[in-house]
Design brief:
alpha+beta; 4-stranded antiparallel beta sheet; two-stranded antiparallel sheet; 4 helices; 6 strands; 19% helix; 24% strand
């Protein structure tokens, strides 16, 4: 949210920071304390709050926290947590975030669909030249088509 200003044009505005809900699946119950969840949120970006359902312990499978994030930066996949000499990576699940390309860091498409990740025309020609027609059918036998008669015999 921003303060209203004269001549506001939503098409020209850039929103770099946005509140994002993050789910922490299979988080041990020892970490379901507000101070600990705030520390986890601050390690992701900047902690805002937790859901009422999390506060009441309504869901046992995950915790949901809200953090302010710069949406132009790459998203963290996990955070490192430590408890009594035990260390593990906690995966992060972002709600309602579009695919983020790890090649160009743009949102809206996965890595496989990135234009920077696509092979050039020269690479495509080279790969097609390496496959000969004999190689395509290697190991397969052509089966002749047999038409069944109308009675199903």
């Amino acid at each position: 949210m921003r303060y209203w200003k004269e001549c506001y044009n939503s098409y020209k505005e850039q929103f770099l920071v946005a509140p994002v809900w993050v789910r922490l699946f299979a988080l041990p119950i020892n970490f379901w304390d507000l101070e600990i969840l705030e520390g986890i949120g601050n390690s992701i970006r900047r902690f805002v709050k937790i859901t009422n359902f999390t506060q009441r312990g309504r869901y046992a499978s995950y915790v949901c926290i809200c953090v302010y994030m710069n949406i132009l930066k790459p998203l963290l996949e996990s955070v490192k947590l430590e408890y009594q000499e035990e260390v593990w990576q906690q995966p992060l699940d972002y709600e309602h975030i579009l695919f983020c390309c790890c090649c160009c860091h743009e949102y809206g498409h996965p890595y496989k669909a990135c234009s920077l990740n696509q092979p050039s025309m020269e690479e495509l020609k080279l790969s097609q030249e390496q496959i000969t027609p004999q190689d395509k059918n290697e190991g397969f036998k052509e089966v002749p088509y047999k038409k069944k008669n109308a009675k199903g015999q």
